[in-house]
Predict the 3D structure of the following.
Amino acid sequence: MNTKKFRVGRVLRASTRSFVIGCAVMRPDIPAFGSFAWAEGLAPGSAIYGLIYDVSVEDDAFVRQFISANPSEEAVLDQRENRQIPIEVSVLATGCGDGDHIYHRLPPQPPVTLDWLYQCSREEVCAFTAKLDYFRLVLETREIPADELLAASLRSAAAARPVEERERFLIDAGRELARLLAGDPTRLEGLLRRLRPT
């Protein structure tokens, strides 16, 4: 793992397929939809990799009252930085690692409650996406926006690479998608369109 770790939040609940972490305050550097993240596995040196597929700000009775008081911008900023705002980040498990190898499959066990979730570094993103076998896990997950998530993850993975390698990576990803979605050309076309730069 990368020695410089950016902590996103702590695990609230987890299953083998996905987990939810809690953040105290939403900051610009919190990973966004489609970002790669990892949590430590139970075995020493192991990791569970995933993609952030949802960020939600939970209902808060205090905020409702605070808004009705028409607060100043300074007071709003103070509340954002100093209160425990209930923010949940949902992560789809897309792989695991043992310290030497990365496997694109569901982890044998989920992370443990209160474990840290870390944002993947550029090097970790490139290592995880050196193979594209995680595509099937994302495409077959029904309860998430799978196509949007996969496209966002590929844009993120391309951006983590040197400029001269980005186009080749996206072409290889498009070929793998064409292989997996050969029987569903409409879905394939929609996914490929989402990969185009905005």
Summary: The helical segments are 61-68, 73-82, 122-128, 135-139, 146-159, 163-180, 185-195. The chain is about 35% helix and 25% strand. The beta strands are 6-14, 18-23, 36-40, 47-57, 87-97, 102-103, 116-119. The longest helix spans residues 163-180.
